[in-house]
Specification:
The complex is a heterodimer of chains A (129) and B (202).
Chain A: E1 3-5, H1 7-20, E2 26-33, E3 38-43, H2 47-70, E4 78-82, E5 86-93, E6 97-104, H3 109-128
Antiparallel strand pairs in A: 2-3, 2-6, 4-5, 5-6
Chain B: E1 3-5, E2 10-18, H1 25-35, E3 45-48, E4 54-67, E5 70-78, H2 86-92, E6 98-104, H3 110-125, E7 136-141, H4 155-162, E8 170-172, H5 181-201
Bound molecules: guanosine-5'-diphosphate and magnesium ion.
Residues 25-26, 54, 78 of chain B line the site of magnesium ion (MG).
Chain lengths: 129, 202
């Protein structure tokens, strides 16, 4: 099933991401589908890095879903990578989308968790409209 | 799964280079990456093991310009060909819009090509697709090795083995020398976009 993203949807998604995540300290936020297509993105990373980030994140999630099956889980709904200076948080949005949030060490993981789960619900509503 | 972004006036499609291990899938992407300007081809990502074997996939985004006012972004992927990596191949096929099947012209690889095409069909069926309905082109790669005296399959043999049912366009190629690489890319892109457009018109 192909996806058509209207201007209105794009505007709503960006507005939501800015309000919930960027305003709370996220450096960059990317929404991708499970095939690795970029849906929307905003923040301070260049597109040439965001495209592979989208592809690799989708694959990473796919691989993790396979691991989940091997240990008798349906799926893992979130992933977190902790770095020296920055962190990256991935969460499933519905069945088909992945929300990727990059943030540095000054921002608390708890806050990002809270805001991503709120944003995920709203994103799903927008995508399913 | 193609994605149309109406705000950006952009169409994204996913094309997967499929085929048996060592047929030249990565070599195709590498050639494209090296011979396109940086504005057109983005960063190439390769996930491989210590040797030159693809462990997960290769990825290369390519901007091929505008068609009917839409910018076209093609996301190229390769799969690992080794039989044991089937789960990975299936994962990479998720949301695929078109396939370039890279066959190995080496005579000793004859059965491997046939098996890989069958494996492609099986994996596509997992997503309710199949080799006959998806946009597909074939590439008969490593033709340059004929000069070195390596026993190759003839084009007719390869076509009989792989393309008698499909009747897809095919290209003779040498991915390391770049022969047939852009022809293959152009044709599969054209077919993929045409098929996406047709689905959208419905
Ligand atoms: N002579 C020749 N060698 C090739 C050609 N295409 C690929 N190769 C070589 O075959 C090997 C496997 O190629 P690779 O692209 O890694 O295969 P993949 O497993 O399909 O990704 C490498 O050593 C390549 O240099 C070709 O057209 N001619
Ligand atoms: Mg490879």
């Amino acid at each position: 099933m192909d996806l058509i993203l209207t201007e209105e949807k794009q505007r709503q998604l960006i507005e939501l991401i800015k309000r919930e995540l960027i305003a709370n300290g996220a450096e960059h936020v990317v929404l991708v589908d499970s095939a690795g297509s970029l849906i929307v993105e905003t923040g301070n990373y260049p597109l040439e890095n965001v495209l592979p980030l989208a592809a690799l994140s989708a694959a990473n999630f796919g691989a993790t879903a396979e691991i989940a099956k091997l240990v008798g889980e349906e799926d893992f709904t979130l992933l977190f990578h902790k770095g020296e200076k920055r962190n990256i948080h991935f969460s499933k949005v519905g069945k088909d989308y992945i929300l990727i949030v990059l943030f540095d060490k000054t921002v608390s993981l708890g806050l990002i968790r809270l805001k991503t789960s709120k944003a995920a619900e709203e994103i799903l509503k927008i995508m399913e409209e | 799964m193609a994605l149309i972004n109406l705000a950006q006036k952009e169409l994204q499609v996913k094309i997967v280079y499929y085929g048996p291990a060592r047929s030249g899938k990565t070599a195709n992407l590498t050639y494209i990456y090296k011979h396109m300007s940086k504005q057109i081809a983005g960063k190439m990502v390769t996930i491989d093991t210590k040797g030159d074997r693809t462990l997960f996939f290769d990825f290369l985004p390519v901007n091929i310009g505008k068609i009917k006012g839409l910018s076209i972004r093609v996301q190229l992927y390769t799969v690992p060909g080794q039989v044991m990596y089937n789960a990975t191949r299936r994962l990479v096929l998720r949301g695929v819009d078109g396939v370039a099947f890279i066959a190995d012209s080496l005579r000793v690889q004859r059965q491997k090509n046939i098996d890989s095409l069958r494996d492609l069909d099986e994996n596509l069926r997992f997503y309710n697709l199949d080799v006959k309905s998806i946009p597909i082109v074939l590439q008969y790669n490593k033709r340059d090795l004929a000069k070195a005296g390596v026993p190759l399959l003839s084009i007719e043999e390869m076509d009989a083995d792989l393309n008698s049912d499909l009747q897809a366009p095919f290209f003779e190629a040498s991915a390391v020398l770049g022969k047939g690489v852009f022809e293959t890319l152009k044709e599969i892109t054209k077919r993929t976009i045409r098929s996406v457009a047709k689905k959208l018109m419905k």
